[in-house]
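Lab notes, practical 5.
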Amino acid sequence: MSIGGDRADIWGSDDRQLARVARNVTTRYVAIAMDGLIGLVLLPFNVHHLGQAAYGLWMLTASMTTYFSVLDLGFGGSIVKFVAYYRAKRDARGLNEIASTLFVIFGVVGLVAYGVFVALALNIGRVFAITPDQAATGRALMLVIGVYVSLGFPFSIFGGIINGFQRYDLNNMVGVCSSLIVAAVNVVMLVAGASLVQLVTVTTSVRILTYFVYRLNAYHVFPALSLRPSLFLWSRVRELTSFSVYIAIIDWANKLNYSIDAIVIGAYLSASAVTLWTVPQRLAEMLQRLTNQFNGVLFPVVVDSDAGKKADRLRALFVEGTRLSLATVMPLAGTLFFLMGPLVRAWVGPKFDESIVVAQILIVVVAIRVGNASATTVLKGAGEHRLVAFANLSAAIANVALSLLWIRRYGLVGQAFGTFVPVVFTSIVILWPAACRRVGIGTAEAFRYAVWPTIWPLAVMAIVVLPLRDALPARLFAVGLAGAVGSLVYLATFLAFAVKRDERQLYLAKVIELARARRRVAAAA
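Output from the prediction step:
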């Protein structure tokens, strides 16, 4: 039986690839900025109306949800891969079998997850040091939040289908609208005197309703979508597992690689040392989030190129993606590296001077990770996911071993180098050469074309920023001014001298093309 037919209009268009990627990345940054702004405004508002104890209880119960991602066993990271693959093959039945199989799997995972939430709710007084009244409230919160998290597993199919069709912008804008509505409901309810349980129940209900918007959009993007238990196949489970198990290893390795530092520091140094570590960690996380959104939206394009045997496009994605990623991260990373001293002192005071060198090390780690992200994306999307999984796992194990070895002798700097060494070795010695081989380009040629033009402008930036650093007062506005000047100098040097004339003209033409496309869309609207 044929499912969905073979009409071309059910698959969407592959034209205007650059415009689509730009739209996806832009809306992702809009979503990040909106979430950050809402969080900045709502935090003091919620603490004021709920009280510190109630707000802390809310955050404590909500924090438990982050650990439930391990229950997807890597299947969550497989959705986009297989949707993009079967879309490239124009195989509607295969795509629906994959989606239906994942929907059944995630339905079971959702039930298991809610069972875990119920168990935690019944034992919350034993797990956390809270009063009996807080335990009753926390139990109710766990049961409510558990519904949202558990339903998120099967409903993630719809978001994955949208992303697999390279329509991240739809998911991003739904997320923005949902965040705004939830924030408005939050404010109205607290002003009206709602309790914490009432607040969380209503805002969680709004978030659950958002799931149905994702579902509606998935059927809009892929009209032939059909989720039926009869399309569940064990052969598809085996096919999914051949990829998902390695994605699970990558996810778990990343959690081990970048989340265990505070535990090691707390065990071998002190709680005060954990506080000193938090400042560099927050800066590194901020830089990572701001500069690595591009490679996420590239993943389905890589899968499509590999499935369609488009070797030239795959090579171009790797080279241009690497250069664009580095050109994005280097101005910010350079600014933070050169200005870390005055930034830390102006932000949190001279008591955190020990954090400066640690922060500089972690900033370099992030720059290398972002610069190598296109290589990782190509390897994951073009059949080399096993290598990525075992490389990340080896790096995580080495990180733990080196951290334990060096933290006793070198303190926080030793901990930072425990992260730095495995990441640098894995990225430069293993993953980068492997990606070059996969797309058929020499490592020296790839470095000369994609990497070197983004590195040497840092020297020009340093010539400008370092004198400014010493001349300006140790105030955040001064640091921001020096950073803005340094970033502009970097970008001007990169565009004027680091890239060739024809490449500069191509970039300018693409920017003009995108601007015209946006004007046409606005006029049509």
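Observations recorded by the TA: Residues 14 and 161 are 16 Å apart (CA to CA). The chain has two domains: 15-252, 259-453.
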